[in-house]
Write a structure and sequence with these properties.
Layout lengths: L7 H5 L17 E2 L1 H8 L3 H9 L6 E3 L2 E5 H8 L10
Antiparallel strand pairs: 1-3, 2-3
């Protein structure tokens, strides 16, 4: 009868990648101010200004402030300027 516990050599062997469950990164709909600044190619200070002036919607999670990119894009659409020339 074989012992069910793995031997020392079996325990130290790395686990094959295909035996692990695939872990996809969670695509969070929320990003922080650094991520928002990078997304819109502006400075973090600009994002801080938008937040302070309530130009963009945000949510507080404890001390963190996070943003939803689609909601921020919709808010910034109010500042679109239409040209007089077609």
């Amino acid at each position: 009868m074989k012992n069910s516990t793995p031997s020392r050599s079996e325990a130290s062997r790395p686990i094959a990648a295909e035996t692990l469950a695939p872990q996809e990164p969670s695509a969070s709909p929320w990003i922080d101010r650094h991520g928002l600044a990078k997304f819109f190619n502006v400075s973090v200070r600009t994002v801080d200004g938008w937040t302070a002036q309530n130009i963009v919607p945000f949510r507080r999670l404890g001390r963190r402030i996070v943003f939803s990119v689609p909601r921020v894009e919709a808010s910034l659409a109010a500042f679109d300027v239409n040209s007089k020339h077609p």
